[in-house]
């Protein structure tokens, strides 16, 4: 009796798509992205970092890219990003909060990559037509102001509802966590920075463990279906 070959997906490292939106190479946001990617690799998983400013990502949505346009044709850069997206189990966005919202380059990534091929009527019909369906969504954000001040101004609640919750809902994603670091300014105390990065490592390890557990559960279900399939067919 020959054993069934293992699911090829089990041997492939879990991939994280990390999207960074900060223009300054030495920023704290870059440290968060670097720490996240390093921790992912230490956990035996894979991190694909897309530093949007560094790669010169164009955030402007061309009218021809919209689904339903007369000639819908995805540009090469969007196709490349969709390739990274397809191979990833989670999308992690890292960005500063400017004027109560993520930078324009992050919103442009959402418009051009997340929204590629998306049909708005899917929301009304309750059917998800998105390459993001089922993937996890994680956020790391920073602000110069305090979290308390953001909440007093209503900016924090607005951001969570208009960005985190809304994106996860319309694209059929699994919202996982939003980690925010406040009072991030030039000349940040190294001790405070190290404490914050320790939080990044902790959250990242927890996410890696969660993704691995989900994969094992999926594989167990896969094996169960294989083992019961032939028996069920014979009984029929």
Automatic annotation (TrEMBL):
Highest taxon above the source species: Bacteria
Keywords: Oxidoreductase
Pfam families per UniProt: Flavodoxin_2
Record-annotated Flavodoxin-like fold domain positions: 16-199
Keyword Acyltransferase: no
Family listed: Belongs to the NAD(P)H dehydrogenase (quinone) family.
Entries under PANTHER family matching the protein: NAD P H OXIDOREDUCTASE-RELATED, NAD(P)H DEHYDROGENASE [QUINONE] 1 ISOFORM 1
Protein name, UniProt field: NAD(P)H-dependent oxidoreductase
The species this protein was found in: Sphingomonas qomolangmaensis
């Amino acid at each position: 009796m020959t054993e069934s070959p293992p699911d090829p997906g089990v041997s492939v490292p879990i991939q994280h798509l990390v999207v960074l939106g900060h223009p300054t190479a030495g920023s704290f946001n870059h440290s968060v992205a670097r720490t996240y990617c390093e921790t992912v690799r230490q956990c035996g998983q894979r991190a694909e970092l897309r530093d949007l400013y560094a790669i010169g990502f164009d955030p402007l949505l061309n009218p021809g890219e919209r689904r339903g346009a007369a000639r819908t044709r995805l540009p090469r850069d969007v196709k490349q990003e969709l390739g990274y997206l397809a191979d990833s189990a989670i999308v992690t966005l890292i960005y500063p909060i400017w004027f109560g919202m993520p930078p324009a380059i992050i919103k442009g990534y959402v418009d051009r990559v997340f929204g590629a091929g998306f049909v708005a009527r899917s929301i009304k019909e309750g059917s998800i037509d998105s390459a993001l369906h089922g993937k996890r969504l994680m956020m790391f954000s920073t602000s110069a102001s305090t979290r308390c001040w953001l909440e007093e101004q209503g900016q924090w609640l607005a951001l969570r509802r208009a960005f985190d919750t809304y994106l996860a809902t319309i694209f059929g994603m699994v919202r996982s966590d939003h980690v925010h670091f406040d009072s991030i300014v030039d000349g940040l105390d190294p001790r405070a920075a190290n404490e914050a990065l320790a939080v990044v490592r902790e959250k990242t390890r927890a996410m890696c463990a969660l993704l691995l557990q989900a994969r094992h559960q999926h594989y167990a279900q896969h094996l169960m279906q294989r083992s019961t399939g032939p028996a069920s067919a014979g009984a029929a």
